[in-house]
Model the fold of this input.
Amino acid sequence: MIQKTIIATLLAFLSGTPLLRSQSIDTVHVDTLLSVTDSLISAVIEEIKKEIKDEAAEMKIDIKDGMNDIHIEIIDRDTYHIVRRPRKPKATIEETRQYWGYNSQMTDPGSMIITPNQLGVQSNYLPELDNAKSIHFGIEQLWGFNLIRGKVRIFTGVRYDIHNYRFQNEFTRITENQPEFTAIQVGGPLIDPIPVEKSKLVVNYIGVPVALGFQDRPGDNSKFSAKVGVHTGYRVRTHTKIKETGGNVEKQFDDFNMNDFYMSPFVNINYGDVGLYLRYPMTDLFKKDQGASTQSLQFGITLKMS
Done:
């Protein structure tokens, strides 16, 4: 650039010119030198000012904060505009959550059948549960798609659930390969039950939730959020587990007349990374006419993982 050439010429002229090192110089030469020097210095200063002004003119600066974009446009050295405009919300956000809670069954008394036999008391419904140990665990990956300003979104994804039904009576046995769900409270006159520590039924599901969600902030880091939706699932595995007092564990795998599909409306309310959830299935736990009319209610806490 021209100012660099002028500055270099001036420095070379002032530091190395033979005219300054001459021992004999007349007054005319000195006046000429001073005049040239003053002119060069003035030219350099004017060029620097012009360059600063040219580079500052039409300058545009963008600053982003959490909620807005701040746009600064410098027209010249003394005039600028500041425009604050809302940031466009993300079209899609991701969310991974864990669910920890309890299973509580609700059975229609009119559909319950009890039949005493030689092994004990037989029934077509789940015996009384130990609710404190009937644990439900689930994990889901959701994608939220923007509907209104990033605060109202529709969510969908994939979810995996494990339902544990722990029986209060450890001598409860679930019989496999039966035309109807069959539970027996072992202890009849012809059997001496082996001492056990636990008896439970475990059902695994994989499914797809669909929900309408609200959040107080349009991004991923909202404080308050809530979802209302429906979760549909497919049963992928069912087994019983008996743990004897001596440590021996016995498992049996069967469908145990459990329904292959289920549909469950749900509501989640979250603050930060922690929340509460409630699910009430619309489908019966057992297949039609293969067990008592039973629904399983789940409730507990959610933990955000991402």
